[in-house]
Amino acid sequence: MKIFSGWRRFAFGLLLIFLVTHLFSVRELNNSKMVESRKQLNKKFDHLVLGPAAGQGMSNRLQCQGSKALNRTHSSNGRLGVDGSIAFVTVFTIYNSSVDKLDDKSSNTIVGNASYNKVDRSMAVLNVFINFIQVAMPQSEVIVLTDPVSDLSVHRHRVSLYPIQGEYSRDKLMLQRIRSYITYLDTRLHKLSQNPRNITHYIFTDSDIAVVDDLGQMFRDHPNFHMALTFRNNKAQPLNSGFIAVRGTPDAILRAKLFLQEVLKIYVSKYINASRMLGDQLALAWVVKSKPHFDASRFAKTVAFSDDIGGTSILFLPCALYNWTPPEGAGQFHGMPLNVKVVHFKGSRKRLMLESWNFYSSTLDTADMLCLILGSGRTKYDF
Ligand SMILES: *[C@@H]1O[C@H](CO)[C@@H](O)[C@H](O)[C@H]1NC(C)=O
Ligand SMILES: *[C@@H]1O[C@H](CO)[C@@H](O)[C@H](O)[C@H]1NC(C)=O
Ligand SMILES: *[C@@H]1O[C@H](CO)[C@@H](O)[C@H](O)[C@H]1NC(C)=O
Ligand SMILES: *[C@@H]1O[C@H](CO)[C@@H](O)[C@H](O)[C@H]1NC(C)=O
Ligand SMILES: *[C@@H]1O[C@H](CO)[C@@H](O)[C@H](O)[C@H]1NC(C)=O
Ligand SMILES: *[C@@H]1O[C@H](CO)[C@@H](O)[C@H](O)[C@H]1NC(C)=O
After folding, report:
1. CA–CA gap between residue 360 and residue 366 (Å, rounded)
2. Residue 7 contacts by C-beta under 8 Å, 6 or more apart in sequence?
3. pTM over 0.70
4. 2 and 90 in one domain?
5. How many structural domains does the chain have?
6. Helical H runs in the chain?
7. Please, which domain of life does this record's source organism belong to (predicted)?
8. Do 212 and 75 reside in the same domain of the chain?
9. Of all protein residues, whose CA lies closest to atom 14 belonging to ligand 4?
10. Does any domain span residue 52?
């Protein structure tokens, strides 16, 4: 233990806490429009700012009056279950070795009636991620892939830690994430060979997301895909790596693993010097577009489609539903679809994620909470 903490202090310096979700946040900064207006947008708020909600007047978009929803969302309530259970998998590390000494109360952040230091902030995001999943899909499991030397401890029902040896330094983190996914899928394949009837579908996500609807129907409505990715109308980065679903059958897990191994190979050979946050998404897009005659114009519509990429059957799901982020710059989404399933609190929206949870726990109204998110999501927050 002594050796470990000594080594850790050496390796991580006086105080280094990092959180996977905070790193993800910088990933999409390279949007030229955003760079232009960065100066105006740089102010970060320590309280919610409710702006106009996008998509008003559009019949298939959520209509709001302030944070009051005029439409009921998710009325189908089709909790029909799927064959097999579902597990969410996220990569998350936290190092708190010397925070106690250096922690300065004045740098704490207040959300609602709680005060957070840096480590608390990271943990709060992870906990809210879990809270939302347990409301929307109470039968599902959460698996946290982590660094064996991480200081993470989580004691929650249906949540387990899975340590994977690797390189979790800042600039290797996205690379490590793909490696961890591959390692994890490998262990599942091994387990399945012993007990082939125990099917669990996997959804690999960033931890700064809120699941607001049952995702089981995705596996039921689309029975043939091996893995699913989310796309958007963005030429350079049409695929977001924050949401990757894998069907739990041995064949699908194997195919997903092979696909991710190809992505990893391209990442290392072509994009290792790309901004540390972009490499995985660029590699993902490269592998998909390398299929001869791949029709990339389908990324411009918000309609799901399937394609076979190197033997892996991939379902492409619109970010607008499965990875919804408040519009940045280009404003692709024009409001919020009524049947949105996953909200992604990218970048400096982490306060909004916590405030949304607090709002939901006091109102138990998902539609109203979505109005809060729609109206507040373009603001940058301090959390
Ligand atoms: C950032 O955007 C500029 C202009 O759009 C482009 O030339 C540059 O290659 C981009 N950088 C990365 C790391 O994608
Ligand atoms: C959503 O609410 C608005 C305002 O009440 C209404 O005009 C619209 O038809 C509703 N949309 C749907 C799909 O129910
Ligand atoms: C405020 O704190 C109390 C416990 O001290 C807790 O029960 C309550 O949920 C908190 N409210 C908010 C909005 O966080
Ligand atoms: C640091 O990590 C340990 C587990 O290794 C945990 O018990 C402790 O609460 C953490 N400290 C903080 C400030 O989060
Ligand atoms: C089925 O797999 C899950 C993990 O995917 C495991 O927690 C559970 O114990 C397994 N059940 C059986 C009967 O092996
Ligand atoms: C990345 O950068 C290093 C140092 O600048 C260089 O030696 C290496 O060849 C580059 N790798 C790729 C794949 O471009």
Report:
1. 7
2. none
3. yes
4. no
5. 2
6. 2-12, 20-25, 32-36, 38-41, 99-102, 118-136, 173-194, 216-221, 250-270, 279-289, 319-322, 350-363, 366-376
7. Eukaryota
8. yes
9. 119
10. no
Which ligand has the nearest atom to the CA of 360?
3
State the CATH number of the domain containing residue 290.
3.90.550.10
Q: From ligand 2's centre to the CA of 60, what distance in Å?
A: 8
Q: Looking at ligand 4, which atom is closest to the CA of residue 117?
A: 13
Q: Tokens at residue 377, please?
A: 């999501």
In sequence order, the 6+-apart residues with CB closer than 8 A to the CB of 232 are 238, 240, 299, 318, 319, 320, 323, 332
Over residues 61-102, the pLDDT tens digits come to 999 999 999 998 875 445 555 656 999 999 999 997 655 555
Of all protein residues, the one whose alpha carbon is nearest to atom 2 of ligand 6 is: 273
Give me 126's structure tokens. Answer: 């992870």
Average model confidence (pLDDT) for the chain?
A: 86
Helices 250-270/279-289 angle, 10° precision: 110
CA of 61 to the centre of ligand 2 (A): 8
Domain membership flag for residue 147: yes
Q: Are residues 118 and 8 in the same domain?
A: no
Domain range for residue 9? 1-43
Residue 227, domain member (yes or no): yes
Domain assignment present for 59: no
In short, whether 194's Cβ falls inside 6 Å of ligand 1 is: no
Q: Which residue has the tokens 């389908």?
A: 298
Tokens standing for 198?
């125990």
Amino acid residing at 248: G
Give me the pLDDT at residue 139, please: 93
Task: Report the alpha-carbon distance of residue 71 to residue 63 in Å, rounded.
Answer: 6
Q: Are residues 14 and 156 in the same domain?
A: no
Ligand 2 atom 9: residue of nearest CA: 59
Query: Which single residue is written with the structure tokens 């960033």?
Result: 206
